[in-house]
Amino acid sequence: MTSSTKTTVIPFSFAGVPIRQDEQGRVSLTDEWKAAGSPKKKKPTDWFARESTQELVDMAKSLITPKMGQLELVVSTTGRYGGTYAYRTLALAYAKWLSPELHLAVNQVFFERQEEERNPDLILDRAEATYRRRGFTDGQIQARFLGKATRNRLTSTLAAHGVHKQGYRLCTNATYIPLWGGPASLIRQRKQLPEKANTREHMSEKELVGLHLAELLASESIEQKNVRGNQACAQECARAAQSVAQMIVQHQRG
Predict the structure, then answer these.
(1) Rounded to whole angstroms, how far apart are CA atoms 112 and 72?
(2) Among 83-97, 106-120, 173-187, where is mean pLDDT lowest?
(3) Which CATH class, in words, describes the domain spanning 2-118?
(4) How far apart (Å, rounded) are the C-alpha atoms in residues 178 and 122?
(5) The pTM is what?
(6) What are residue 137's phi and psi, to 5 degrees?
(7) Cα distance between residue 161 and residue 153, in whole Å
(8) CA atoms of 197 and 193, how far apart (whole Å)
(9) DSSP of 73-132
(10) Residue 78 pLDDT exceeds 90
(11) How many angstroms separate the CA atoms of 109 and 12, rounded?
(12) pLDDT value at position 2?
């Protein structure tokens, strides 16, 4: 079946290639193929042409479909994220056919996700361990977790209030300028970061907490005033950031 689909990226990649999922949890076999080095005669279509694969799909349908309702086990998608997506059991089998290394890597990710579904705290533990490997302090890790939740709230608020396309960048820079004296691009230059680096991954604990407070105040203000549109929401972000910046300056002056 061919359809359009929204995708998310599994926090996992192999050989530098991110492995995506769609909203139903099906995994991109196209990404797996690319991660394995795009071997000839091993495309998803080649795999599905095998008699053994068809037997596997038929068995999966009889065992899985009754539990999953109307979920289609395999779909071919169009658009920006086009490709072949399949239920995780089939994705794991395809990975095994492609490469033993890829099979082991994908299997480990699926195992970890199952564990996380049973115990969501494992997600935080894994993220914390990753931040520690990058040299984050305890304070930075806590501020990063708090700031991520606030950022998600702000982006949801912006979307609900008519912000679109470049409006998100406009609101981000409207927050950064009062706090740090320039847009995200300037912050990257000052910190000598790559052009597309995530600035939040390179902020101090104080910078992260200040950003968290500014975005929290902006979210509340936009919701309470029912502000709408790119420019109007950016103005509220700037106003909130100015308040936080003034507080920081007053504290530093004693």
Answers:
(1) 24
(2) 106-120
(3) alpha beta
(4) 37
(5) 0.53
(6) -80, 170
(7) 12
(8) 6
(9) SEEEE-STT-EEEE-HHHHHHHHHHH-HHHHHHHHHHHHHHHHHHH-THHHHHHHHHHHH
(10) no
(11) 7
(12) 46
User: Side-chain half-sphere of 104: how many Cα atoms within 13 Å?
Assistant: 2
pLDDT at 219: 95
Alpha-carbon dihedral angle through residues 112, 117, 119, 123, given to the nearest 10 degrees: 60
Q: Which of 20, 17, 36 is nearest to 28 (CA)?
A: 20
Q: Where does the pLDDT of residue 176 fall: very low under 50, low under 70, confident under 90, or very high at 90 and above?
A: very high
% of the chain beyond a pLDDT of 90: 43
Using DSSP's 3-state secondary structure scheme, residue 45 falls into: helix
**Which amino acid would we find at residue 58?**
D
Give residue 183's pLDDT. Answer: 92
Task: Give the start-to-end residue ranges of the domains of the chain.
Answer: 2-118, 136-253
Lowest-confidence pick of 81-85, 121-125, 182-186, 234-238:
121-125
Distance of alpha carbon 176 from alpha carbon 204, whole angstroms: 14
3-class DSSP assignment, residue 49: coil
Rounded-to-integer distance, Cα 223 and Cα 212, Å: 17
Give, for 2, the enclosing helix (H) or strand (E). strand 2-3
Whether the CB-CB separation of 172 and 241 falls below 8 Å is answered with: no
Compute the chain's Rg from CA coordinates: 23
**8 A C-beta contact, residue 19 and residue 2:** no
What's the farthest any 2 CA atoms get from each other in the chain? 76
Beta bridge partners, 84, equal 76
